[in-house]
Amino acid sequence: MNSFKLAVLSAVLLAAPARAELIKFATLAPEGTDAAKIMQAIDAELRAKTSGQLGFKFYLGGRQGDEKDMVRKIRLGQLQAGGFTGVGLGEIAPEVRVMDAPWLFRNSDEVDHVLKTFDADFRKDFENKGFVLLGWTEIGFIYVFTNTPVKAPIDMQKLKIWMWEGDPIAESAFKALDVHPIPLSITDVNTSLQTKLIDSVYSAPLYAIALQWTDKTKYIYNVPMANASGAVLVSKKAFDALPKDQQKLLLDVGAKHLSKLNALTREENRKALESLKAHGMIMTDTTPEQLRSYEALGRKARRELEGRLYSAELLDRVEKSLAEYRAKSGAAKAPKAAAK
Questions:
Q1: What's the sign of the alpha-carbon dihedral 331, 168, 161, 179?
Q2: What is the rounded distance in angstroms from the CA atom of residue 150 to the CA atom of residue 205?
Q3: Among the three residues 270, 301, 330, which one is the final residue of a domain in this structure?
């Protein structure tokens, strides 16, 4: 009898499915956004290919707090993954914020070149801080939206421009311009535009529309300040606990879908810019000579961040790689080419 019971119990245990591994994932992106849909597509494919043994549990729309809260909770093991903008990435591996450095990139091809060239470096930076890179999630080129036209760097000094409180990237850019921004939480921007405490903001076009900042501004300065990056990261501890085949699957499926998100974001930003112009926003341009002045301003701003975010050695390598890429491809375009 005992032998019979033992045999039945063994059969039940063998037939029972293994416990599903759910990766608790948090992001500020709300339900229904492209970012949320892409993560849900990753989840669906993982579950399908592992018979439900690997997937995500989602906390969308900031349900787990801001990005600093998300980083803290991942380190405590309360979450295992997150979708981050540069703010969160700076909390984890400040070195990778070289991708957000002022006036570094002229177009998306250059962004892709640096990401490909320095992929191993960035992955190592994340892993040294206890995270695994699932994929990059670009936010886009950052434009200045104003209520008075800007045609040259000196015009920026006349603005009452907002700065995201505690953002070293924006701080270094404005310092190079000799601009004195008004630091505010992002939640205070709309009210401050209405009360005229500020008259200018900066953002990728897609998000400027979503945040309704374009309802309160009239001009777009066609010289992007930077390209804002983001990434999806998984706790290395949680990743290492997965079977090897699931680790590979997670990386492969994540890379495939997140590359689609980047392409989609770029297209949506392009459409957003065209829509704003079609609805009456005026894009101010500038002369080639003034555009060239941003080359020097960019070098000054980027060097200001050495030691605070990234090393001089890393910045040197990135700038050298970009120079070689431009020489090889003949890409002597002005910074405004990012909008094309």
A1: negative
A2: 17
A3: 270
